[in-house]
């Protein structure tokens, strides 16, 4: 650790000496591209006006929509884009650093009423989405938010848990519960393509993990949608992360180095061909948790040390005649060993080990390419290809009292890969009518092999030994009609076609904006999702050695979403939003036996997988989400969200119960203040940031352990007749982040400490049965947990 601190200090002092020139005024360039939002054509002649410290700087876009405002003093800037016939866009309090050019790409919306132009400011645009077809339950988030929010760990999932209607499933992973839904219902999309779980140590079919592979340093402004998403999304019933990677700097090479709890990071970006404005962007990370473990910091895995590394990459090749070609890649490898045999008798091996040695390896990645081509100023197509895969290998061994291996208990090697094609055609008839049609075609291949020791048969048996492939077709269409600048409607249809089933799903949304500061929104959607692979392809081995697949004919789980919302800008960068919703889930997967199992609880501590399942379950979620937000202004921001909801389900025992995720309420308060410590004439800009977060939520639901039966069996036996009938005390957690930044002309350095659960609150994680003592023990979630960060950009 001393060597790491020495490295940080030496880097800091060397850059302090090299990065700041007393003869040099600190300024930087602002550049980017402006497009028509509906046709994606470049807009020439757009006026770009930058304001900072009472001074103004300007430029206009060229024939290809590019602009460049040069030599702007660093600090917090306001920038406005204006063009005749289009709604103006104003962005406030954007940070400009001397060490890195600011690239802002903007899509402007053509006005239907050119004589009565509307100014659309960042106060309003921030609550809209990059996908212009979203009317309800959507929000755009920025890189700065994922870096700034206390407790976010530079992770978009943990950041999104602060939004209304969203909560963390637990502290150990970044799984998120959206409006009472299972985390497994989330859609991950990157560069327009569906991707597998983008998290280290994530399982097949899961959507979260302890550490994200997605590096927020490479992301552009992206969308998060929590309900009734439009017709271009499918195979998910809870929400969508629609992520975009930014393009690298097309004129200048820039670099980033970072050392923190999440790992050692190196990033680079720059031009491939300056004249053609092609660029590259990459970021590599290697884990550092071994160092923190040596310091005695407990991060919830006992004596096990997670190891991982990941790579993010994007290449951009624009062309005026041939269109734009882009290549992207995301990949990671991870490993962890829970070796209880190496622990002392009085040493806690963690919640996951119980006289067992568990080894887990996960490899996951995606590589893709896209080509966007313009047939005319109003028509373009985009064809994308992507290949993705995930491998999950696990072994479990038991051991004797002396630590020697007793027997191998379980072996698993699950491999799943997807080849996906997405083709779309977009046509803007005029300012009022825009039509988009497209299709996702996915070929999935699977090789699922696992085996377990059967004591009653005294031999190993295969649980699954399946190889095969499936096809899924998802054609969709969307029509956007703008009656005028106040009324807008998006209507569409999404279809899911598999080899055995299909679903036709209408989507509809409408917005009414009586003023520039208020809007009423309504949305509806029918959504569906295929069953989890581990359930769908489950194989049952009979006594004679033959096997059957009882669940291979399971239908899609379906869900109706209804949303009604209101939004009001209160002035002074304050914004209020309210949404009420109802969700009806049907064809949920339940057991053929009369018990409490349901797929809507996937991702909880209900690890049951029924031998034979059917689509006969029901569930519903309804609630109210309230948001009061102050966007960054004079160094201060705040996000206050309250969610009140109810989440119920019915298994095949015909009993209505709380779902595993029915906490009933969530309250989040996030805020921060930026203090400028340097004088206006100083040659480096020094800032101190203090950010804090408080979360109060209803306690986690759980199924109680039957103590008498557990003592008799020598292991935990759950009383599933009372499934999720108990609830822990309310969850409370407070986080605080303190950062210090020195921004010079050539280098920017940042130091930060993020202390999670600063009050060291004991929040229950789960219960287990201790066979040695014959008692039920409760394991808590993470206690007080400090995280450190050093970042340098140049």
TrEMBL record:
InterPro entries listed in its UniProt record: Beta-barrel_TonB_sf (IPR036942), CarboxyPept-like_regulatory (IPR008969), Plug_dom_sf (IPR037066), TonB-dep_rcpt-like (IPR039426)
Keywords from the named record: Cell outer membrane, Membrane, Receptor, Signal, Transmembrane, Transmembrane beta strand, Transport
A Pfam match: CarbopepD_reg_2
Example of a GO biological process term: siderophore transmembrane transport
Cellular component GO terms, alphabetical: cell outer membrane
GO molecular function: siderophore uptake transmembrane transporter activity
Annotated signal sequence range: none
Protein topology in the membrane: Multi-pass membrane protein
Gene3D superfamilies: Carboxypeptidase-like, regulatory domain, TonB-dependent receptor, beta-barrel domain, TonB-dependent receptor, plug domain
Cellular localisation: Cell outer membrane
Entry-linked PANTHER family: HEMOGLOBIN AND HEMOGLOBIN-HAPTOGLOBIN-BINDING PROTEIN 1-RELATED, TONB-DEPENDENT OUTER MEMBRANE RECEPTOR
Name the record gives this protein: TonB-dependent receptor
Provenance organism: Croceimicrobium hydrocarbonivorans
